């Protein structure tokens, strides 16, 4: 719980700076890339989390990694602060929270779309347009595959769930028949 609160505070801070500088997308991409790079090197993650290594040595490694990635000075300084405060392990959560703040600020709603098979381009466009029409916001689809739903689609946007799957309809029919 404490880690989520800390991640929220750090992500809010970098989000506000990005918003002030009108660089929401740029900082978001850089944070995502930094997180992915660190995740791909478990040794680096362990190094940064180790209490046995002096903070200054960790900051030097973080600065070198940031420079090699071509990170903006703001994101480099932000990551250096995380390392200094011993919070580098929160980077994944910070990136996730940052993305939520940025989407909200830009009027974007993320819709998790579960289907039995991949949607083609026109199906994706129609679904996105229909959801945008319903919500009045820009929709960003995040596709998921689950053959158990047999057919149709299940959409989750925040706390709203729209079940148009064949499995969902069969379960509703079964419940209706058992209720009689």
Automatic annotation (TrEMBL):
GO terms for molecular function: proton-transporting ATP synthase activity, rotational mechanism. It comes from the Bacteria. Signal peptide: none annotated. It is found in: Cell membrane; Membrane. One of its GO terms (cellular component) is plasma membrane. Its main location: membrane. It is a peripheral membrane protein. Keywords: ATP synthesis, Cell membrane, CF(1), Hydrogen ion transport, Ion transport, Membrane, Transport. HAMAP family: ATP_synth_delta_bact. Belongs to the ATPase delta chain family. NCBIfam families: ATP_synt_delta (TIGR01145), PRK05758.2-2 (NF004402). F(1)F(0) ATP synthase produces ATP from ADP in the presence of a proton or sodium gradient. F-type ATPases consist of two structural domains, F(1) containing the extramembraneous catalytic core and F(0) containing the membrane proton channel, linked together by a central stalk and a peripheral stalk. During catalysis, ATP synthesis in the catalytic domain of F(1) is coupled via a rotary mechanism of the central stalk subunits to proton translocation. This protein is part of the stalk that links CF(0) to CF(1). It either transmits conformational changes from CF(0) to CF(1) or is implicated in proton conduction. This is ATP synthase subunit delta. It comes from Schwartzia succinivorans DSM 10502.
